[in-house]
């Protein structure tokens, strides 16, 4: 048994860029240095945005970079029933509710003065008292954060990444005011948000270390809460710096100019990519 299991978990919604390469290489190198396992997981629950051509390119790019991973590769679209099962266990505990608010409904509710709205970013709670039996096609499912934090005891997680190194306690008040009633079940019935699917798979695959970009650091608080509610273990997290463009902006999938495939076509080597991301 190895005590270091990690993964790279891209969504096939566009070509991988330098930021993905850094994340995948770092996780892979850490696994190899620790005599551990490196998994590739395809996070393809968003059927509107995921394409098989992008998934194929992920395998090609990572192979070209010289990475090897455990097989079979877990593809989330093949496990939707498992995610639903966990989502329904939260429903049985009365921790989620159906929500029909559109983005503009939420904006309007937030701009009107209201009691009990802790932060202008969080959901104002319009649908909070709706029972699950009232779920209609097209409704999302939200977690009732105030109830959820009451159900779990004290939770914490260990962070190894440079910027937030240390052990972090979850503060119930901050979960309510800064994350609030997050969406866990998406509008398409049978589809859960990636935040929940990732937590379920990280546990199912026995992940001990989650190596990923700094942009996902805040989400960790919600994921650790979900681990507490679902009785799943909490891995160690390592959030790494983001690769930015010349203007200092985080790279996005639409930045095709920095796609690994583009560098490959230009004749760059995997060693060049490692140098470009500072490895
Ligand atoms: N699928 C997510 C992404 O493409 C990554 C989730 C994670 O690493 O936890 O950004």
């Amino acid at each position: 048994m190895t005590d270091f299991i990690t993964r790279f978990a891209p969504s096939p919604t566009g070509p991988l860029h330098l930021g993905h390469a850094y994340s995948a290489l770092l996780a892979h190198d850490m696994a190899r240095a620790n005599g551990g396992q490196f998994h590739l997981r395809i996070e393809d629950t968003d059927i509107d945005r995921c394409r098989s051509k992008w998934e194929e390119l992920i395998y090609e790019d990572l192979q070209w970079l010289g990475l090897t991973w455990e097989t079979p590769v877990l593809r989330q679209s093949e496990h939707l029933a498992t995610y639903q099962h966990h989502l329904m266990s939260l429903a049985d505990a009365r921790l989620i509710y159906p929500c029909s608010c559109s983005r503009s409904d939420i904006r309007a509710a937030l701009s009107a003065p209201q009691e009990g709205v802790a932060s202008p970013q969080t959901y104002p709670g319009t649908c909070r008292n709706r029972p699950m039996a009232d779920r209609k096609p097209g409704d999302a499912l939200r977690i009732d954060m105030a109830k959820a934090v009451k159900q779990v005891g004290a939770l914490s997680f260990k962070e190894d990444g440079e910027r937030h190194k240390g052990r972090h306690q979850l503060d119930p008040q901050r979960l309510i005011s800064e994350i609030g009633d997050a969406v866990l079940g998406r509008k398409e019935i049978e589809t859960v948000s990636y935040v929940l699917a990732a937590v379920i798979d990280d546990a199912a695959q026995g992940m001990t270390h989650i190596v990923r970009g700094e942009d996902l650091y805040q989400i960790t608080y919600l994921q650790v809460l979900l681990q507490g509610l679902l009785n799943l273990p909490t891995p160690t997290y390592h959030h790494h710096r983001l690769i930015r463009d010349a203007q200092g902006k985080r790279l996005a999938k639409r930045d095709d100019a920095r796609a690994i495939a583009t560098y490959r076509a230009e004749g760059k080597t995997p060693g060049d990519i490692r140098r470009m991301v500072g490895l």
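The chain has two domains: 1-78+244-279, 79-235. The CA atoms of residues 43 and 198 lie 8 Å apart.
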